[in-house]
Predict the 3D structure of the following.
Amino acid sequence: MNAVARTRRERALARSFARRFAREPHGLARAPGRVNLIGEHTDYNEGFVLPVAIDRAVIAAFAARSDRQVRVYSLGFDQEDSFPLDNIERLEGDVWSNYVRGVAAVLQEAGYRLTGVDMVIQGDVPIGAGLASSASLEVAVLGTFQHAAALAIDPRDQALLAQRAENEFVGVGCGVMDQMAAVMSHRDHALLIDCRSLETKAVPLNMTAHGLKIVVAHTGVRRALSDSAYSQRQQECSRAAQVLAQVIGARPVVALRDVTSKDLAAHEGNLPDQLARRARHVVGENERVLKSVEALRQDDLPTLGRLLYASHQSLAGDYEVSSPELDLMVELACHLEGVVGARMTGAGFGGCTVNLVRKEAIDSFREQVIETYRSRTSLPAEMYVCEAVDGLRIIAGANAPASHSPQD
Ligand code: GLA
């Protein structure tokens, strides 16, 4: 049995690696998906978010090679890709291995000297569900390259590099929340991230003490239309910030993060209606994140629940990124006794809702929310009861090299 593999899933992955590459892996890199508790579409406005890393992850089994070739096999796609570190090209289309190539490319651009690796990857974060499957892939791959070449990289830089791979190499605009959550989260905690300073605070969830579970409900609809609508929202927000910067004289407005709801009430007449509604969501959502952290600290679940519902209303009404399916899932949940709060999570236009549900109401959630939803829509809804887990973990064998910085 491979020395680094501990769970059944890790052992199966180590066996696949051994079959494919005829040697044992040196290590495993595990990076979780996340569910965002609150703080939606605030990260690219330099605001606040409160994600939770969940017990669904991408795991990469890896071993360094003595040359500069990368060979990577995806168990889920049953496909292998192979490329040289000295000439990394982007593949045409929406291909999983571009995330692997992209991470290698940005690490090298940033001055890190990589070694070739063999890798087998496997993930159980549903794709297109708003649970950050791409970030978990990027971060697991980043952990692999980093460990194989014994590089020391600051956790914030890990997240920023993974984000850069997605933005610049893969070509998908996204904020930094998902990669930060995949790197920096702590078990049993949510992660408050200030997306301007990248300061983080682990916020205790006390789920067991509260008798609560985090339930993710998948609408059975993969995120659609999201890329163009997402970049449209980004542009609308930066235009709104520019206009408000002209009229709020008292202090600089660089992003909507710098605008308070008081400012907005006084000045939103300067914005066209659509931009005013976008700004209202972002400004209100930032305030809701901070209030949610306070509510968690005070064990004030009713307030937390109200904030989650208010977030959903704002995303549906002002920000217009919900969908009829997401609205129905939240609507069904909010009438069920034992549900503290519910909202859509992630970019929107499909994917999942996040629900805080009392332990004893899990079965009725399945029957009355998921089953009712299925019968009304004929869509294959699913639910995942999630644990809050740690961010990136490398499990390495005894002969694995120690970390050193690129200058050593
Ligand atoms: C996607 C992006 C994140 C964030 C959310 C919306 O998950 O990857 O950066 O913007 O949408 O909150």
About this structure: Residues 399-408 have pLDDT under 50 and may be disordered. The longest strand covers residues 48-64.
